[in-house]
Amino acid sequence: WNSEIYAIKSRIAKSIQTPKLVIVGGSNVLFGISCQMIHEQTKIPCVNGGTLLGLGPDYLFTVARSWLKPGDLVLLPLEYEQYQDNGIPTSDLIDYVLARDYNYLLSTDLVTKIRLIGGISYPRLTRGILAKIKPPQPQTTGFQSKTLNEYGDETNLQQSDISEEMTKKVAAIKPMQIGGYISSSHGMDSIAKFVKWCETNHIKVVATWPNTIWFEDYNTPSKQELFRSIEHFYHTINVPVLGQPRDFMYDKSLFWDTIYHLNDRGVHHRTKQTIDLITPYLKFLNSS
């Protein structure tokens, strides 16, 4: 699924010859913002570059660079975990790179290569060998690439399709275990390097907050310190931040199945907020 949606999003991005808006992040972007709605209301070409949080910022930004051209505008609604990323490859990244993106493996430094290759588990290695002998059947359940539209948006998020099981799953979600001031991290270094690359290539970057579920716990001093540290980080690298964290924290009734995945009603609400906030920056595209 991930390789299919990456192929689709890459094809969309590379087909646009005029300055465009590219929204980069994990699944809170894929299941949270409608580039179709943005394009229809602003007439600006828009690519939903949301994929999978577990791939980590290094990989997300590596692919995003291949989508961008001078004059483009990037919006970063990164998940909170991205700012705390420690640079150690996740099982999602190891799985994906070794199975689908060998070129990325070759492009990494020696330490990362060792971590990626050394991180593969024996059961996963066995599954990979068996898949070479007998390729798996195409995926017919869960999310599928065919439900992406021409902007890269996930479209299969109708509130009317939410099952009782999914409702219970969302109801059981607890606050994220995040908090405290982040003075530095591998994730922040990765973001800063991407922003610097964008500046060098005449690409404007703005940031905003991810869509997630609201909990009173996020008013505690520890959580507020985290939010302030992210704002301060962007200030130090001269990236404007649109809105406040609370603006994009919603009631559970707007969510599909996880803490970052909105249903269609939630997507519409979040996208409207995004359009209102990003409109002043669209002049950057019109002047390119």
**Coarse shape:** globular
Spell the H/E element sequence: HEHHEHEHHHHHHHEEHEEHH
SS element count, helices: 14
Side by side, the strands of the main sheet go 2-1-3-4-6
**Beta-strand percent range:** 5-15%
What's the Cα radius of gyration?
Answer: 19 Å
User: Which topology does CATH recognise?
Assistant: Rossmann fold
State the domain count. Answer: 1
Helix residue percentage = 40-55%
Q: Please give the CATH class.
A: Alpha Beta
Poorly predicted ranges (pLDDT <50, ≥5 residues)?
none
Would you count the extended β strands for me?
A: 7
What name goes with the CATH superfamily?
SGNH hydrolase
Mean pLDDT: 90
Q: What class, by secondary structure content?
A: alpha/beta
Question: What is the distance, rounded to the nearest whole angstrom, between the alpha carbons of the first and last residues?
Answer: 35 Å
Any guess at the CATH architecture?
3-Layer(aba) Sandwich
Give a short overview.
The chain is α/β, with parallel strands linked by helices. The protein contains 14 helices and 7 strands. It has one domain: Rossmann fold (3-Layer(aba) Sandwich), CATH 3.40.50.
Can you tell me about this structure?
With about 290 residues, the protein is of the alpha/beta class. It has one domain (about 1-285): SGNH hydrolase (Rossmann fold). It has 14 helices and seven strands. Helix 3 (about 35-40) crosses helix 13 (about 265-280) and helix 4 packs parallel to helix 11. The protein is globular, with a radius of gyration of 19 Å.
Descriptors:
Rossmann fold, 288 residues, alpha/beta
Could you outline the blueprint of secondary structure elements for this entry?
Layout: H1 2-15, E1 21-25, H2 27-30, H3 35-42, E2 46-50, H4 56-67, E3 73-76, H5 80-83, H6 91-100, H7 102-107, H8 110-118, H9 122-133, H10 164-171, H11 186-200, E4 204-208, E5 212-213, H12 221-236, E6 241-242, E7 249-250, H13 264-278, H14 283-286
Parallel strand pairs: 1-2, 1-3, 3-4, 4-6, 5-7
Helix pairs in contact: 3-13, 4-11
